[in-house]
Specification:
This protein is of the alpha+beta class. It has six helices and four strands. The chain is elongated.
């Protein structure tokens, strides 16, 4: 059981890496555990990865031009970088939407964060908790499925520890369930 003082019955994992790698879509075997990560999500993530490569390319070229004193060219390249960044962000935003929309978390009291990047998962978790805290009288607990990190680099959870940290910051009572792949959260803050 966790609480706002940071105590938890589950062993605390090491802090996650802050880098958010862009990876290929999960194997079909993984999709059983990640039912909302459909092929179209993988396609969008791949597009975002390609766009990211362009962001890096134009950023490097812009810096080189600036260092050569070609400020106008540097500015043009910087604007091109921003254009590719917008395309990358848009592809990732659409992928996250494809994962979250079919879940009906506003009525089910359950959200599955599989397939989301860390910032997307944290935004979704905050929105989920805000939504359900307003409805605490109609439901005592909610479920946040984070995954245990089995599909992360080096099998090290990235989202789970950050969600647990958020629950502690919000002084919410919770317990790890489903083999440490989810949190059952009591909606009313601890007094």
């Amino acid at each position: 059981m966790g609480n706002c003082f940071g105590f938890s019955s589950a062993a605390s994992p090491d802090p996650p890496s802050l880098s958010l790698p862009v990876s290929a879509p999960p194997a079909k075997k993984q999709r059983k555990e990640q039912p909302f990560v459909i092929d179209q999500v993988g396609t969008l993530r791949n597009q975002a990865s390609t766009h990211h490569d362009k962001v890096v390319q134009f950023a490097k070229r812009s810096q080189e031009a600036y260092q050569k004193g070609e400020k106008k060219e540097a500015h043009t390249l910087s604007e091109e970088k921003k254009s590719w960044q917008k395309k990358q962000d848009d592809a990732n935003r659409r992928a996250a939407k494809l994962i979250l929309e079919p879940q009906k978390w506003q009525t089910s009291g359950e959200i599955d964060l599989h397939g989301l990047y860390l910032d997307e998962a944290m935004d979704a978790t905050l929105e989920f908790l805000k939504h359900w805290s307003k409805k605490a009288s109609s439901r005592e607990t909610v479920l946040i499925i984070t995954g245990a990190g089995n599909h992360s680099d080096n099998n090290k959870a990235v989202i789970r520890p950050k969600v647990e940290e958020l629950l502690q910051e919000q002084c919410l009572e919770y317990e790890a369930v489903h083999g440490n792949g989810a949190f059952r959260v009591t909606l009313k803050p601890r007094q």
